[in-house]
Design a protein that fits this description.
The complex is a heterodimer of chains A (323) and B (303). Chain A has a domain of 70 residues. Chain A is built from eleven helices and twelve strands. In chain A, the strands form two sheets. Chain A has an eight-stranded mixed beta sheet with strand order 6-7-8-3-9-10-12-11, with helices on both faces. In chain B, helix 2 packs across helix 13, helix 3 crosses helix 13 and helix 5 runs parallel beside helix 8. The chains are: A alpha/beta (323), B mainly alpha (303).
Chain lengths: 323, 303
Amino acid sequence: MDAPVLDVKGLKTYFLTDDGEVPAVDDIDFHVKRGEVLGIVGESGCGKSVTSLSVMGLVPSPPGKIVGGEILYKGEDLTKANDKRMRQIRGNDIAMIFQEPMTSLNPVYKIGNQLIEAIRLHNPWSKKQAWERAVDIMTQVGLPRAEELMDSYPHQLSGGMRQRVMIAMAMVCNPEVLIADEPTTALDVTIQAQILDLMKRLNTETQTSIIMITHDLGVVSEMCERIIVMYAGKVVEEANVETIFKDPKHPYTVGLIQSVPDMRSKKQRLYSIPGTVPKPGSIKQGCQFAPRCEHAFDRCFAETPTLEKTDNGSRVRCWLHHS
Amino acid sequence: MAELARNDNPIQPNQQDEKPASPWRDAWRNFRKNKLALIGLGIVTFFIILAVFAPVIAPEGIDDQKISTENYAKLESPSSEYWFGTDDFGRDILSRVIYGARISLTVGFFAVMGSVIVGSILGIVAGYYGRWVDTIISRIFDIMLAFPSILLAIAIVAVLGPSLKNALIAIAIINIPNFGRLVRSKVLSIKEEEYIMAAKAVGMKDSRILFQHILPNSFAPIIVQGTLAIATAIIETAALGFLGLGAKAPTPEWGTMLADSRQFITDAPYTMIFPGLAIMLTVLGFNLMGDGLRDALDPKMKS
């Protein structure tokens, strides 16, 4: 088995606020292999986005701070890299797509200029070469009339087109890892499918690893090979995509899967996990999920479970599955 | 009728196929619809033409005293020969008002340019870096704004010595906090935009993000505020001139002309009326234009 492109070990990103430290990301481990698509799933506020920003070195600081752990990109620890090195890595080695295609492009510049700028940041190319590369990548992401679009402003494009442009911008320097932070949340369903297809295609064509951050289990089942479920800044379950849907172990994962509305059933009420995600750091003792968990017992409120391997190969952080 | 007219104007389906409209062309289209703004633009253009072509347009030189063999043509009422009359030295007021446009517009423009440049840099630094840098710069702005602006200008001129150049510098200085605050608040909101995060995510440097991505996005309010500030700057120049702290005696500065003709207000009111009208009209022009620009450039008004 080859070494992972990106290996995150014990990452802790805390926010230092007036009320004390808030552990937005608390001791998480994951890795991505070359060409792999990894899904990170969880409710809003569970630390998915902070994880991705930590990898990019873009956690707003202050108040955010990476207080522990390692982010190894091809063996290099990014938490120790200086600003200049991080700028080289961003865009060139690790690129990112954001949730809101409507606001992720600068409204005062033409699409072409923004792409060319991104290209020339990392390549010593002439304007003309960069222009050709930009047209090339726009065609590759399935934008029609690429040459014409180069001359348009972001407000003249639809949401789906803008997200394609964002993907083009992220892919333009052939990154090793692409972090997609809810890339389809703001798009309507038909466009979502197209964008997912596109990302899947780019993944197979270029062997770029993708970290797919989402709360949409449908997206995950379609795209990913391996899934990490996060809850309140911690990884609660990690498994292959088939395993997780067939045999979810953690009560939270079970709840998430149950919450997906089934088109064929005639149920009147949709299932939802009672309660909301606790404020990170508010639960000092025991399992973070215990107050919302149907199966919680005494031990859950007293001790924090560790991530343990189970019989079906997944890793779960739950006392129910501790042998 | 109104409804009929509306029906005649469907949502112009061809607009997308036209040449891509740049944000500035959009703004111009909105601006053109505004009659008052066009009047303002007209007035401003008129005065700019007067200023640029003053030597051609003005019938007399600024210091030419009209002395004939019998009489010294001083304080003559407006006539076909001297449209605006003459002043106490027998100088043609029309010509002096025309040359005065040069001074007022130049001082207004360069004073505002100065405050825009310094104010923007301070505002950007304060807004982007925040923390103690922001605190220091913002408190300095607060202190400057605590003085009535004209008093501050008088104080600055008193230190530098009265002259037109120093009046310009004083006006530039007192306007800095206005632009500084404007830019700072703009930067504060723009730096939270996702496209700034996206720019960071492709590996851009701070300085590049600041000047290529944040600054251009705050141009619109700067232009609006700048246009309106030129109007105030012209009034302030005239005020300083009137108080004897700006342009010196023979210079045909409007405020100075007002001050010099104070004593003739009952006998020869036209010596004051025309420079006064000139000030009023230019200021009106800039204000109308500024309001029009605000409407045209305000993103909230855009569909």
